[in-house]
Write a structure and sequence with these properties.
It comes from Anaerocolumna xylanovorans DSM 12503. GO terms for molecular function: ATP binding; kinase activity. This is Lipid kinase, YegS/Rv2252/BmrU family. Its cofactor is Mg(2+). This protein is α+β, with helices and mostly antiparallel strands. The chain has two domains: 2-117, 3-Layer(aba) Sandwich (Rossmann fold), CATH 3.40.50.10330; 125-300, Tumour Suppressor Smad4. 31% of the residues lie in helices and 36% in strands. The protein has nine helices and 13 strands. Strands 1, 2, 3, 4, 5, 6, 7, 8, 9, 10, 11, 12 and 13 form a 13-stranded mixed beta sheet that branches. Helix 2 packs across helix 3 and helix 6 crosses helix 8. The mean pLDDT is 94.
Length: 307
């Protein structure tokens, strides 16, 4: 039995169109399945929890949607060890699919899942605040500051809907990134990796913890990221003028930003960030609120993917 959670509104209705193709193929092949369509924000988590508690043993749970849908589902599963996850990308950014080198053809992805002969283990990130008001998993990335502001506006702007309609959805993140660069102030705070002494930074632009190589619709934030090494790939930018950041942005798109002064990259198992003022955070493009103290942790090989 396969359980499908579908976001029909993903990428301005693309999710539903892809699901119809997948459903037709499932019926043609007489595959036993149950399907659930999300109707509101957070519904993916609710459905995942329902499926988990209503069934026993190892479950095959297939997600049709974007990175945000995957994030909802993974955060709704009480014990990820009991779930074998399949993924059919249907979002506007699809950074998880891009990092995993998944096909753009939904039927090819379905066949890969149905014909899977082994489980691919993958790391999962955890972002937590001291009061546990934030305690969320992420599979792609989580960041504080600039990239989170871009994600937050992308979730709300009608521009994304328009650009998705004309198949230029990736431009959403680029245009908003240019706007947010000059609209938002820099941050100030301290950073500690793997229990090291906190180091203070001024003019912090962003602090990002990566599991995968890509975020923001294809920006290669962590070109050396390995989703199986038990490490977060950290990128943070500090001490630069906004014009200097603007000059570096094109290199960020192709993963050639790591050699610039003011761009710090390294791997660690745990990162704690303490900011002077609360800042918006994103997890796989979803923005649950503003926080001033966050610890990011990598949990090695926690997610089981049908490959």
């Amino acid at each position: 039995m396969y359980y499908f959670i579908i976001n029909p509104h993903s990428c301005t209705g693309k999710g539903l169109k892809i699901w119809h193709k997948v459903q037709k193929e499932l019926d043609r092949r007489s595959v036993e399945y149950k399907s659930y369509l999300t109707t509101h924000a957070g519904h993916g988590s609710e459905l995942a929890k329902h499926i988990f508690y209503e069934n026993e043993g190892i479950l095959k749970l297939i997600i049709v949607g974007g990175d945000g849908t995957v994030n909802e589902v993974v955060n709704g599963i009480p014990e990820v060890e009991r779930i074998h996850i399949g993924y059919i990308p249907a979002g506007s950014s699809n950074d998880l699919g891009r990092s995993l080198r998944l096909s753009k053809d939904p039927i090819e992805n379905l066949n890969r899942i149905l014909n899977s002969t082994h489980i691919h283990l993958m790391d999962v990130g955890l972002a937590a605040s001291p009061d546990k008001k934030l305690y969320n998993r992420f599979l792609v990335s989580s960041g504080l500051g600039y990239d989170a502001s871009v994600c937050k506006e992308a979730l709300r702007t009608p521009l994304k809907t328009f650009l998705n309609h004309i198949k230029l959805g990736k431009l959403t993140y680029i245009l908003i990134a240019l706007k947010q660069l000059f609209a938002r102030p820099f941050m100030e705070g301290m950073i500690s990796a793997d229990g090291s002494t906190f180091k203070s930074y001024r003019k912090l632009l962003l602090v990002t913890s990566m599991i995968q190589k890509y975020e923001g619709g294809g920006m290669k934030m962590a070109p050396g990221a390995d989703p199986n090494d038990g490490k977060l790939s950290i990128c943070f930018v500090h001490g630069l003028s906004k014009l200097r950041v603007l000059a570096i942005l094109p290199f960020l798109l192709i993963g050639k930003h790591t050699g610039f002064q003011g761009v710090e990259t390294f791997d660690c198992q745990e990162l704690t960030v303490k900011l002077v003022a609360p800042q918006v955070i994103h997890l796989d493009g979803e923005c649950p609120g503003d926080f001033s103290v966050v610890t990011f942790t990598c949990l090695q090989n926690k997610v089981q993917l049908l490959q």
